[in-house]
Write a structure and sequence with these properties.
Elements: E1 5-6, E2 11-15, H1 21-30, H2 32-35, H3 49-64, E3 69-75, E4 78-89, E5 95-102, H4 111-125, E6 131-137, H5 141-149, E7 153-164, E8 167-177
Parallel strand pairs: 5-6
Antiparallel strand pairs: 1-2, 2-3, 3-4, 4-5, 6-8, 7-8
Helix pairs in contact: 1-3, 4-5
EC number: 2.3.1.267
Family: Belongs to the acetyltransferase family. RimJ subfamily.
Organism: Arthrobacter bambusae
Length: 180
């Protein structure tokens, strides 16, 4: 069970609930232009409560099996970011991937850094993971700073790694090893 975490006086992180779908859809609508250079092309339905409700429900199934942790960042009751610990593989790998974004109105305040650091601690102390990986577009220096502050190290570059903003784009690859 992933417990909610208070990151500042008003900002907290917790596992998303299906009841967060309307707030998540509103956050995506509010941040559509801001996120578009960093995300895959999305169908119009993606920005609806119905889509987000189904997506959260699917991610909660993976959460229940220990394969993912869909997390929301909240300022009071307002959803201001999404962080996904996904693709958890156990056995000798003990690894997961991390993806995230913070609302444009809250960017640059250190919230992404604080949240990623909290996730690193959670992954090590509560989930027993050995490693978390993340990737950024080559020109996403803000996200790279977030990862480096949380102890991630750049481990390479993957050509045409993900289809972002409608085209296959190169990504820098990062990892943090949680146990020696």
């Amino acid at each position: 069970m992933i417990e909610p975490r208070q990151l500042s006086e008003s900002v907290s992180m917790r596992v998303l609930r299906v009841s967060d779908a309307a707030a998540l859809a509103a956050a995506y609508v509010r941040n559509r232009a801001y996120l578009s250079p960093w995300e895959p092309l999305r169908p119009e339905e993606y920005y609806t409560e119905t889509w987000q409700s189904a997506d959260i429900a699917n991610r909660l199934v993976a959460h229940e099996t220990g394969e993912a942790h869909p997390l929301g960042l909240f300022d009071g009751d307002r959803l201001i970011g999404r962080f996904n610990v996904a693709g958890i593989v156990r056995g000798p790998f003990q690894s997961a991937g991390l993806g995230y974004w913070v609302d444009s109105e809250y960017a640059g305040r250190g919230l992404a850094s604080a949240t990623v650091q909290a996730i690193v601690e959670m992954a090590r102390d509560e989930l027993g993971l050995h490693r978390i990986e993340a990737s950024t577009l080559l020109h996403n220096s803000a996200s790279q700073r977030v990862l480096l502050k949380a102890g991630f190290q750049k481990i390479g570059m993957a050509p045409r790694y993900l289809q972002i903003a409608g085209k296959w784009q190169d990504h820098n690859l990062y990892q943090v090893v949680l146990h020696d």
